[in-house]
Amino acid sequence: MFDLTFTIETRDGGTTPLTLAIDQAVIAGWTGRDPVARDKHIAELEAIGIARPATTPIYYRCSARRLTQEDSIEVCGGNSSGEVEFVLVGWQGRTFVGLGSDHTDRKVEGYSVTVSKQMCDKPMASTLWELEDVIGHWDRLILRSHAWIAGKRELYQEGTLEAMLPVSELLKRGFAGGKLPDGCAMFGGTFAAKGGIRPSSRFECELEDPVLKRSIRHAYDVVELPVLG
Fold this sequence. Notes:
The protein is α+β, with helices and mostly antiparallel strands. The chain has helices at 35-46, 106-109, 113-119, 131-134, 167-174; strands at 2-9, 15-22, 24-29, 58-62, 67-68, 72-76, 80-81, 84-91, 94-101, 104-105, 122-123, 127-130, 142-149, 152-160, 184-187, 202-209, 214-225. An eight-stranded mixed sheet has the order 2-1-12-9-8-15-3-4. Strands 6-17-16-13-14 form a five-stranded mixed sheet, with no helix packed on it. The mean pLDDT is 94.
C-alpha cells in the first residue's frame, strides 16, 4: 500500500481531505474514441520507433510508488516527455476523477512500452472530483497541457473527453465487472502532441470543467540526470 492525501472538491466548491491507500497503478493506452485520431497518435509514436500496441485499448501496469504529487521529477537523460491524462481512482466503492501526467522515457519505449511505464515518476494533482458530479457532462471536460521548451511555454496538447472512450467502456474492457477496484489509480489516455512528441524542462497540465467552472491543475519541473555510460 502507498498512501496519498488528496483534497476532494465538491461541485459546490467545498473541500475535504482524504488519504487513500493506493496499491495499483494502471496506464490505459490507445483509448481514443475516434479510430482516426487514435491511429494518428499510434503513427506519431511509430515515427520515433515505438511499435503498435497489441490491443486497443491496452492496460499497462506500473508500480503504485511511481505516483507522486511533488512539483519536480528526476529522469535519466533527455529522452522523456509528459502526457496529460485524466485519472480515475477507486476507493470504498466510489470513483474519483483526477489529473496526472504519464511521463514516459521514449528511448526505453522504443523497445518495451511496459518497461518504459516503470522508468519515470507519474505526477498527479492533489485535487479529486467525484465522478458522479461530472459524468453527466463528461464529454465536455477539457484536457490541456503546456510544455516549456527552450525557455518558451508552448501549448502541447488540448482536447475534450468526447475524443476518449466513455468511462463505462474503459472500465468494462479493463476490469472484472466493469468496476474500478479500491486502491486503483488508472490513467485514462491522452491526445497527440501539437508539433510532435518532445522533451521539456517543465510540464503543466489541466483538467477543465466548463460546466461547473472549475479546473484541476498541476505542474512539475523535469530534472535531467546525467547518463555517463
